Amino acid sequence: MRTKFSHSTQDEYYTPLYAVEIIVPYLKKKSIIWCPFDTKKSNYVKKFIELGHTVHYTHINNGEDFLTYIPDFNFDCIITNPAFSIKNETILKCLTYNKPFALLLPMTMLNSIETINIFNKFDVQFIIMDKRVSFNGNRPNFTCWYVCNNFLPKNIMIHLFNQDPRDLYKNEKGAN
Question: CA within 20 to 30 Å of 24's CA: 47, 53, 118, 146, which one?
C-alpha cells in the first residue's frame, strides 16, 4: 500500500537523526561543513555541531538558494539532503566547488540518463543502505543512498541497519 508520503508533491522532508549518523564515521575531525539546504533545526546541523564541527547552514527560506547562492565562508565539505526535484542540478553545483560532498538522494535517480551522464563525469561514491530511510514513520516507495565525491575511503560503502528504519524514526520522535 502506498503511503501519503509517496504521493506528496512537497519536496522538503527532514532527515532523521539515524540517517545523519550514517555519515558521521566518514567525517574528518574538526571539519568545516556546509549544509546548504538546512536550518538550525536540521539534524545534520545539530549533530555536526554536537560533534565539534564548524557548521554553516543556508536555506532558500532565508534567500539562500543553493543553485545561485555564493557562500562568503570557507568550508571543507558539503553534506545535506537536497530537494529531490533538483538533484542533478545540486550535484553539478557541488562539483563546481571541487570539495568533498555527501548528498542523501533517491536511488531512482539511476533511471535518468541525465544522472548517468553526470555520474560519468566524476568519481562517484555511494553509501548504500539495506533498508529504506523513513522520513515520517512510514515506508517510502523509494530507497535512498548517499551520493558522494571524494568523501569515502572506497567508492561503495554498505550500511546495514540493525533495526527497521520506521522503528528508528518512531523511537527518535518519541524521544523528543
Answer: 118
Distance between terminal CA atoms of the chain? 29
pLDDT in tens, 105-151: 999 888 899 999 999 988 899 999 999 999 888 888 888 999 999 99
Spell 58-84 as b/e; 16+ CB within 10 A means b. bbeeeeeebeeeeeeeebebbbbbbbb
CATH code, domain carrying 146: 3.40.50.150
Domain encompassing residue 55: 5-175
CA 164 from centre of chain = 19
Q: What is the pTM of this model?
A: 0.90
- Name the domain count of the chain: 1
The span from the CA of 127 to the CA of 151, in Å, is: 10
